Amino acid sequence: MKYNIRHRTHYQYESPASLSHSELVLIPRNSEFQTCIQSRVSLTPEPSARSMRQDYFGNTVINICLESPHSELDILAEAEVTLHPAARLVPDQTQPWEQVKETMMRYETPKDLEAFEFIFPSPMIRPDKEIAQWAAEIFTPGTPVLRAALDMTHRIFTEFTYDPNATSTSTPLSKAFEIKRGVCQDFAHVGIACLRAMGLAARYVSGYLNTQPPPGKSKLVGADASHAWLSLYIPGLGWVDMDPTNDVMPKDQHITLAWGRDYGDVTPVRGTVLGGGNHRLQVAVDVMQQQTGPAA
Amino acid sequence: MRLTNESIPGDDPGPSGERPVTPVFTADILNQSTAVDFSSGKMPPHWDGLAEYLNSLGTAELSRRWQKAQQIIQEHGSAYNIFNPETATERPWALDPIPLPISSHTWQTLEHGIQQRTKLLALIFKDIYGHQNFIKNRVIPAELIFGNPGFLRQCRFGPDRFTPDHHLFSSDLIRLADGRWQVGSHGTQTPAGTGYALENRVILTRILPRMFHSRKVQRLAPFFKYLNMSLMEISGQKQQEPRIVMLCEGPSGAHYFEQVFLARYLGYTLVETNDLTTRGDWVFLKTLGGLQRVDVILRRIPDYACDPLLGTNLAFPGIPGLVQAARAGNVAISNALGSGVLESPGLFALLPELCRDILGEPLILENTDTFWLGTPDTLFRVTEEIKSNTRPMTLYSAFSPAHTRVVHTRSLAGPKKQELIAAIQAAPYAWAGHYPVEPFTVPVWSEQGMKNRYTAVRMFSTAITENAGPGSAKISDQVEAAVMSGGLARVADDPETLVLSGTRGKGQGAKDAWCLSERPTEFKSMLHRFTTPFEIHRGSDLPSRVADNMLWLGRYMERTEGMLRVIRSVLMRVHSETRLDKVSEMPFFFRVMANLKIISSDPGRPDASFSVRLIEKELYRSIYGVAVQSSILNCLNNALQVADRVRDRLSDDSWQILGRIEKGLVRINPKNQSAEILEMLSDIILNMSAFAGLALESMTRGMGWRFMDMGRRIERALHMTNVMASLVQGHTVPDSNDLEAVLEVADSRITYHTRYRTTLHMEPLVDLLLLDEINPRSVGFQLAALHSHLETLPKPHPLPFRTKEEKIILDLTTRLRLADTQELMILGEKHVLPNLDALLEKLNNDLQGLADSITQHYLSRIETEKQLNGQFEGKGYPVAGTVNNEI
Prior knowledge:
- The complex is a heterodimer of chains A (about 300) and B (about 900).
- By secondary structure, chain A is α+β, with helices and mostly antiparallel strands.
- Chain A folds into 2 domains: about 1-85 and about 265-290, Immunoglobulin-like, CATH 2.60.40.2250; about 90-265, C8orf32 fold.
- Chain A has helices at about 95-105, 110-115, 130-140, 145-160, 175-180, 185-195; strands at about 1-25, 35-45, 50-55, 60-65, 70-85, 160, 180, 200-210, 225-235, 240, 255-260, 270-275, 280-290.
- In chain A, the strands form 3 sheets. In chain A, strands 1, 2, 3, 4, 5, 12 and 13 form a 7-stranded antiparallel beta sheet that branches. A 4-stranded antiparallel beta sheet of chain A has the order 10-9-8-11, with helices on both faces.
- In chain A, α4 (about 145-160) packs antiparallel against α6 (about 185-195).
- Chain A is globular.
- Chain B has about 900 residues and is an alpha/beta fold.
- Among the domains of chain B are: about 370-435; about 545-860, no CATH class.
- In chain B, the strands form 4 sheets. In chain B, strands 1, 2, 3, 4, 12, 17, 18, 19, 20 and 21 form a 10-stranded mixed beta sheet that branches. In chain B, strands 6-5-10-11 form a 4-stranded parallel beta sheet.
- Chains A and B meet through β1, β3, α2, β9 and β12 of A and α5, β7 and β22 of B.
C-alpha cells in the first residue's frame, strides 16, 4: 500500500515576529512495517538556520530558527510511504501478561532492553491510581497479553467519548480519564498509562490515518488529520500497534511518523516565537492512496 | 600558651599579658568533640595548633574579631535577601569563626577518594549519554537510568559531539566517631557551596590571619584557577578569550548571594535566562552593544529551566534553542544538561560495585550505609527489617535527590507500614534509603560558650572528560580531575539534615574546612593552552536587562528623593506654630504634591477651618501607605528591588547604604511621632545623597553607571519641571514665599542667595533652576548630562542621522539655551505666565518621550520568546467503519 501525504501547518501572526525557534517531527520514519520512499519539508519564509538529526528514539527531527521579521510561517511536509502490513496475530495465543512483565524486567535481549525504556512513567504519562485500578480490572490473572490489551482499547473506544473541545494539548491525563472525553492523543495516553501500570512496555505513535469519504462523495482536500495511537511490546513478537480511537489494530491505513514515550517526545510542530502578538494556527492534512497499489 | 610575638599587621595577639585571657577552648569541649581523637594520649597536632592559637587570643578578643567579621559579612551583602520581605529566606549556612582543621594525612586520602569518585561519575555520565555500554553490559541497571526523570533523552547528542564535558561535583562527607570518613551523596547538577566556602575563607583570613602564615592551610584559589581554565578549555576557543557566563535564577534563587560572589570572583558575567538568546544554533548575550557570542555557560539553574524546547517544564521561559546550540557543539554548558541523573540515590548506593567494574579498583572512600532496593537480596532484607522494626531507616526515591517523599520507618504505624511495603514491592527499583549515621561533633562558637554540634563536610571537585570524535566507538577514559583543598563544613543539631542532600542548608551553620599540608604547596596548571595573558577589556558588554534595571534604579532613587524633599518641607510647616491658612506658600505646596501624586488632589487655599489633621493623615499615607502606589515606602521598595536585581553591579559600599535606607524604611510606621518622622525622612535623604555621591565617586564610568545616571537625570529634570509648573499654575504671580519654597525643595537656596544677595525675583530663579547649565539641580544641567550620555551609548552602525532620543535632547537643549527669560516673564490672561507654562509643558512631554525612546532603542531586547500553540491533533474522528476493522 502506497501513500502520498501532505501535511501543512500554517502560523499567522498578528504582528511580525522577530525570532522563532521550532522543532519539527514531520518526516515518516522507517520501520519493519513501513518504508519512507521520499520526504520533504518546505518552509516559508526560508529559515536562517535549519538542521536535521535523529533523536534518541530514532525519529527524524528538524530544528529551524527564523531570525528576520516574519508575519507567517508555513510548514509543508510531503512524503511518500509504502506500508508492509504485519502478519496477523491471534490475541488469545499470546503469552499471559504476567509473563511478559517478568521478561521485561529481565531485559535479556537488545530488543527487550530497547523496549524496556517504555515501561516507565514519562513527563505526560505519570502514574495514576485511578487508571491503575481500571487497568487491574481488565488485566485479570493469566489473560493473554494481547487479548487484555485489545479488551482495554475496546473499552476506551466504547467508554470514552470523542470530543475535540473537551481537552487541549495541555490537559493532564488524569483529567481526560476522569471526564472520559478527548481526542486520539488522550486515548493513546490512557491506553499507554494502563499498560505501563501493569508493568508492560507501551509507546506513543504519531502518524496519519487514511480516511474514506462518505459513500458517494469525493474526498475533500485537507480533510484528514494527524492521528495518534499506541504500541505494545511483546517479547518475541515485537511491537504491536493498536488504535483505541477507532478500535482497530493498524494494518494498512495507519502511516507512522514517529514514536516516543508520549506526545511530548514527538510533537509534530513545537516552537517559540518572539513578538508576533496573537497567532492563528491552521493545519491541513491530506493522505492520498496511490492507485497503483493493491486495492484496500 | 602565647605564641611568639612576631608582628603581623592586623593580627594583634589580643590583650596584653596583664589581664588573664579566658581560653576559647576548654578541655571539656575538646574532649566531648568526636572530631578530636585523643586515642594517642594527646591532642592531634592539627587541633592542638588551632586550640593553642585561639586560646592565646581569648574569648574577648575572638568575640571582638568576630564582630568585625559580621561587618564584613554584611558588607558582602550576605544578609540574605533583606530586600524581599515576603520571600526572605534565611541565608543558608551562617558562618562560625572556628574552622574545621583536616590533617594533611586525612586530606590526602580525601583528595584521592574524591578524585576517584569524580572520575567514576564523569565516566558514567559519558556512557549513559553516549554509547550506553554500561547499560548494555548490565554494569548499570537499566531501570536506574531509564526510569529516572532526570535522564534527559534530548540531551544525548550522539557520538558526533564536539565539546568535552566539564563537571563540577560536590561530595558530602562525614567522619564517624571511629575516624572513618564516608561519603553520603554527590551534587552533580548545580552543586551549591563553592561560593560560600570562598567567602568563608575570605572572612577567616581577615580575623585569624596568623593561622594562614604559621599553619600550612592550603589555599582555595588554585581550585578556582583550575575551574576557570577548564571552562576555557571546553569553550573550544583557541585564538581568543572565550566568553564565559554564569547563568543563574536571579535574586529569587536560593543561592543568589553565592552566585554573585562567585561570578565576581571568577570575573564572569552573571546572567539570567532572558539575557541570553540563540540565533542559528549559537548562543548570544543581549548587550547594549548588540548581541555578543557566548562560548561557555556555567549554569546554576536546573536542566528543566534551561530550554522550553526540552518540553519538560513549560513554566520556565528558558532559552529557546539552547539545547540545539549545545548539540551543534557551539556552546559548552557546565554542568552538562542532563547531569542531574547522576544524583540518583539508587546509583549512589551502587558506586562500590560500579567502581570495581568500571575503574577496576575498590572505592577509596566508602559510602555511608545506603542501599538500593532494586536487587532481590536487599529488597528482602529491607522489607524484613521494616516488618520487624529491627533497624530504623530512611527511605526515598531512587531517582530524585530532592527527597520529595521521605519516609522514616522508625515512627511508622502498622497500616502505614503495610502501605509502604506495598508501594516498595510495586516498583522496588524506584526506592533507595539509608540507615542512620552519626557524624562527628565539632565545637561551635557562641557568645554563651562553645557547644559541640554535628558536622558534615561538603567538598568540591571538577573534571573534564574528552569526548570521542565522530564515528569513534571507543570510550576514552581521559578524565582530569581536581579537588578543592578546603570545603564547606556544614553544622547542624540533627544529623539527618546533613545526610539528605536535598535539604537546602536552612538552619544549618557553616565552618571553613582547612586542609593542612606538610609543606607549602605550589599551584601547577594542568592545562597549557591559555598561558598568555589576555588583553584588557573596557567594553560595554552590559546585558540589556542590567542596563534597564540600572536606569530604573536611578529613576526610583531620584524620584523618591524629590518627593521626600517636598514632604519634609510640608511637614515642617504643618508642625510649625503658624496656622496653615497663614502660610502663604501652602497652595504652592499643595499643587506640587498633587502634581507629584503625593496627595490625591489639590485641596486649594487653606482657610481658618482647614484641618491640619486631615492633611497630616494624607501625608503619612503618602509616606508609609502600602496601598498608595507612589508612596515613599513603595518607591523605595521598588528601588531596592531593582537594586537587588543588579546586586552584582553595585559596590559593597553602595550596598551598605542601601541597607541603611532599608533599615530606615522598616522604622517608618504609623505610630511614629511627628518629630521622629521628620528626623527619619532627613536620614533617608542623607543616605540617598550618600548613595548618589558614591555612584559619582566610585563607580566606573561604564554603561551601567551611565544608565543609572540617565535615569537620575530624567527624573530630576521631570521633578524640577513639575515644581516649576506648580509655581506658575496658581492664579496669582508667585510671591517671595513661594519662591523661597521652590528654592527649598530644589536644594538651591544657598546658590541663589550667594548669587543674588537681594530679595527674591522670578526671573533669576527661572534662570537658576531651568536654564543654568552649571547648577546641578537645574533642568539645563540634566539635559546637558543626558546629551553627553547619549553620545557615548553604543550604536550598532554609524548612523547617517541622529537617533530619536538624540533629536529630542537636541531640541530641548536648544530651546532652553535660546530661551529669553524676559519673554518667559510675560504675563497673560488665562495663565499667569503663559510662555513659561508652555515651555514647561513641552519639557514634561518630551522628557517622558525621551525615556520611552531610550527604552525602545536599547532595552527592548529584554522581551522573551513565548510558546507557540501546540498543534491539536484530530478533528474528524472517530471514523469507525471507514477503516479496515480486522479484529
